[in-house]
What we know:
This protein is an alpha+beta fold. It has helices spanning 42-66, 185-192, 228-232, 243-256, 260-282, 305-314, 429-432; strands at residues 77-78, 93-101, 108-112, 120-125, 131-135, 146-152, 165-168, 172-180, 196-199, 288-289, 292-293, 324-333, 338-342, 352-362, 377-379, 392-397, 409-411, 417-427, 442-443.
Amino acid sequence: MTWRLGALIVVLPLALAACKAPQPKYSKNGAAPAITNPAVSDQDIVDAYYYLLGRALIAKQEQADFGDNGFKWNKLVHRQPGGVNWANPNLDVVYSEAWIGVDDKTCDILQIPKIKGRYYTFQVLNGWGETIANINERTFPDHPYGKFALCLKGSGVTIARGIPRIDLPSKTARALARIELGSTPGEAIRLQHQITLHPSGPISPDDPPEVPAFGSNGLPGVELFDNADMLLAGEPDINPGMDGIRAKLAAVRGVSTAGASGRSRVANVVDDKAVPALPGLLKSLGASANGWSHPRRTGNYDDDWMMRTLANLTGIWANNNEEVVYFAAQHLDGGATYSMTFPADALPKTKTRYFWSVIAVDGKTYRVLPTPTKRYLINKQSHVKYDDDDGLTLVFAPKRPEGVPAANWLPTVEGVDYNLTFRFYGPTKDVRDGEYFPPALSKQ
Length: 444
C-alpha cells in the first residue's frame, strides 16, 4: 500500500488480521536464546509490538517512496495541488516532499524563497515520525527565508557564515513543505517550485530497512520482531522515558526467537490481543466535546509512544499543534441535514492566525464524497455569508436547504456514512491548549 497524507484523527480502513508468521530470518548476535523468558507478560508483548509498529510504519513508507513513488535522495517532489485520490486530502495547501540523506561529511542545503502573507512551513521529521523542525517565519524570525543547512548531529561539516544549521539525529529524515494556496494558487505554486534542496557533496545513504510485507488488508504479526535490530539500528528514539519500553522490546524479541514455543506464544498474543485491540484504541485518541474530538498529541509525542504509533498508523507525517490542530466528527448520516453555528465572538477566522477549513470524507474509504458539485470543503476562501447577528452557520446536507447561501453549504451523499475534519492552521492558544472545540452539529 502507498501511504498518503491524511488528518491524524481519521482512521484508515484496516482489516486488522495479522499475517501468517514465517520462520525468523536471523537472530540477535547470530544465535537464538535457548529458553522462553517467563518474566515476559502478555501485556509486555502487546506494548512491545505497538512500540515497534510505530517505527515499522515509517520504514514501510520509506520503502514505498523509493519504490513505487519514485523518490530519490535529497530530491524534492513537488505535488500538484487539488489531488483527492487519497485519504482525507488537505486541499488548502500545496505540498513538496523529500527524503533527506546526510553523513559525517555532507549536509543538505535547503533554499526557502521569501514568502509573505500566506502560511508556509518546511517540516522535518525523523524515522519515528517525530517533528525535528519547522522552518518558517515563526521559528526563525530573524532568518525566515534563504539558505539552511540540514546536518547530522555531531558532524564536523563547516557551514558558511549566516546559514542556520539544523541538526538531525540520524542520517535519514523526511521533509514536507506546505504552502497555503489561498486566493492566488498560482503564486503558491510558483513559490513551491522555488524551494530547492541539494547535498553539499557526494553522499550514499543506506538503503531503507526491510519491513515485513503488510498493507491495508493486514498488519504484521510476530515477524515484525524478526527485523527489530534492523529497524532500530541508526535511528535513535530521541524522546525521554523510553528505557522501559525498550527493555520490554528486547525481552519480547528474545522470546520470539527462543524456538517454536516462544515464537508461537508471541504470535498468539499479537494475533489475538494486540491487533484486535487497535480499533478500540483508535476511537479514543484524545479529548472530545460538542461531538468533536482531537488527538491528545500530534507531531511531538514526548513519552507517549502509543499516541505516536497511532498517529503513524492513521495520519503519517502529522505536524505538531503549534502549526495545526485537527478536530473530527465521525459517523454522520449523508442523507441528513446538519448545521453548526459559530457565535460572532468565536468565528473560525478568530481561532487561527492563518486559515481554517472543514472537509467531508467517506466514513469507510476516507476519500472525498463523490458529489456532483465537486465541492469538497468550506474554508477561508469560500466567501461564506454571515448571519444577521454576525455569527456563521455552516450546513452539511445532500441538498442545499432553502435560504442557505451556497458558500455555506457542503454537499453530502445520501446513503453514505461520512466524517468531518476541521483544520485550524496557526491555532490560537485556546485551540492549541485543548480548551476550545467547534460548536456542536445540530441534526435537522
